Amino acid sequence: MLHEKVSPQTLGFARIAVYGIWFWHVANDPLHTVTEVPFAYFSPIGVLRLVPESVWPLFYTAEFLLVLKLVMLTCLALLVLGVWPFRCLAIFTCILLTFYQGLIRGFGYINHGELPMLYAAYVLAVFPSAHALSLGRRKVADAPPVIYKAPMTAVALLLCLTYTFIGARRLAAGGLAIFINETIVHMVALRTFERGSSGPGYGRLVLAYPWLAFTLQIGFPVVTGFELLSLLCLFYRRFRCAWIVVMFAFHLMTGLFMQIWFTANFLLILVFLTDIDRLLAAWLPQSVKGNSSG
Amino acid sequence: MQHSEWLRLIFEACIYLGLLLFLAQQKSLMSTLKALSLPYQIFLAVLVIAMLGAQLIDGGKRTFPFVVWAMYTRPAYGDPQYYDYSAMSQNGREVQLDVFRVSRTLSSRLMFPLRDMAREFDRAREESQRQAMIADYETILRAVAHMYNRRNPDDPIRTIYVWHCTIPLHAYRNSSSIQRRLLWQLQVQ
Fold first, then answer.
1. Torsions phi, psi for B83 (to 5 deg)
2. Which of A231, B6, B106, B121 pairs with B115 at a CA distance of 20 to 30 A?
3. Among A186, A227, A97, which Cα is nearest to B69's?
């Protein structure tokens, strides 16, 4: 199985990667500008509905969101460093991140972009991911190895589940018709001209070159099949290698042709769906030591 | 719930049941789970159940942060249609109004609802309903204009044009082959 042996250092590396990318994301997000859209257009979703309605006008101000951003950045920086008290700080940060992600999705469209990263943050907050590669850490006495292995496996599983869900829903709702007709070319054309994150993209090439459109049409069911079977990645190395190649190609295509860049997923795949412990063992000699003594 | 929705739900639930049974048979996974203390086990179980539940009940807005994972699930037919935005600035310059970029943090989270609103009022038959939709739509367009003007105070936009565009999927030559129809025009203060 993937992550059969995980050292505290590997989990520490995962912590730095996940909270580090969150730090980068929050730092580059002009969150306070959200309030330029009238509050009447905002509707709280999910757990944000627990916030009393009377409080929202206080929250929905540029000043509050600026403070929220600064608090998140401070907390995330501390989490990257792994300082004490890690778990309390991590859980508090996860609540803030959930609020932040819910807030920006309260305008009528719930995208997926950062959600796998959010789930990874939850898992790393609960498990002891600051036992290594952290500042001012205290000596950890005989923590069982499973405590490091479980969160790595859990995030890998949750990430795979998201892909499985997409594949299963496509098959269940779209049936075979979605693969037989020109749905994928239709989507590429739409996302090419509907302005997105990275300009017009290269989607118009798909309209200009029929062989490219044909390749996408062939690739669409293949990707869906891999998505559906994503959970196999946890147990079969060869399948995982093939899956990573297919998914990287798929994400590259959606980025180039459809202007949808799943940047966070690239990182999550690299950290949680590769034999990262072996790779890190070469860089961090204590990784092996920590593993065997755990 | 419609008949087709029930079928979708049952089909999807069967897939997940099969996958859960597969997971349950993996000794290494189960032994990892069993070796954890109860609070950890509960935490992980809740995460998986919440994700699964949100997926099956099509929750999204009710169940955030657990949402529906569905992308490109319906077959698309005909020529793709989208909405494009341009504007006339105070100095008489015609500019492309890129809602995705202008709305920054909200990006697609504002662009897609705006598209849906345009589609709805474009298709609405009842005039009172249509007027209400247009009022909402204009409010958001004004907010977009406000965001643009804050970043371009030297030459703010004064009029927004909304174009309904159709891409001829089989007869596409270049961007000039896209049919553009003026859907809406809005004066901005």
1. -115, 135
2. B6
3. A227
**Residue A133 tokens, joined:** 């590669």
Structure tokens at B170: 């089989």
Q: How far apart are CA A184 and CA A173, in angstroms?
A: 15
pLDDT, tens digit, for every residue of B3-39?
888 999 999 999 999 999 999 999 999 999 999 999 9
Tell which phi-psi region holds residue A136, choosing left (phi > 0), alpha (psi between -120 and 50) or beta. Answer: left
Say if A166 is an interface residue toward chain B (CB within 8 Å). Answer: yes
* Percentage, residues of chain A above pLDDT 90: 72
- Residue B159, φ and ψ in degrees, nearest 5: -135, 135
The shortest C-alpha distance from A137 to chain B (Å) reads 22
Chain B residues closer than 8 Å to A184 by CB: 72
**pLDDT (0 to 100) of residue B104:** 80
> Tell me: the pLDDT tens digits for A213-244?
999 999 999 999 999 999 999 999 999 999 99
DSSP character at residue A196: B
Bond preceding residue A85 cis, omega within 30 of 0: yes
Amino acid making up residue B146? H
Q: How confident is the model at residue A141 (pLDDT cuts 50, 70, 90)?
A: low
Cα A254 to Cα A240: distance, rounded to the nearest angstrom:
20
Prior bond of B65 cis (ω within 30°): yes
Residue whose C-alpha is closest to residue A27's, from A82, A83, A81, A100: A100
Distance CA(A84)–CA(A129), nearest Å, equals 12
The pLDDT value given to residue A203: 87
A262 phi, psi to nearest 5 deg: -90, 65
Q: What three-state secondary structure class fits B158?
A: strand
Residues A40, A53 contacting (CB under 8 angstroms): no
- Cα angle A153, A86, A63 (rounded to 5 degrees) comes to 110
What are the residues whose beta carbons fall under 8 Å from the beta carbon of A83, sequence distance 6 or more?
A89, A130, A134, A135, A136
Cβ contact A114:B107 at 8 Å: no
User: Which amino acid is present at A206?
Assistant: V
For chain B, the first-to-last Cα distance in angstroms comes to 45
List CB contacts (< 8 A) between B169 and chain A. Answer: 182, 185-186, 189, 207
Chain B neighbours among A 226-285 (CB < 8 Å)?
228, 231, 234-235
Q: What does the alpha-carbon distance between residue A42 and residue B50 come to, in Å, rounded to a whole number?
A: 24
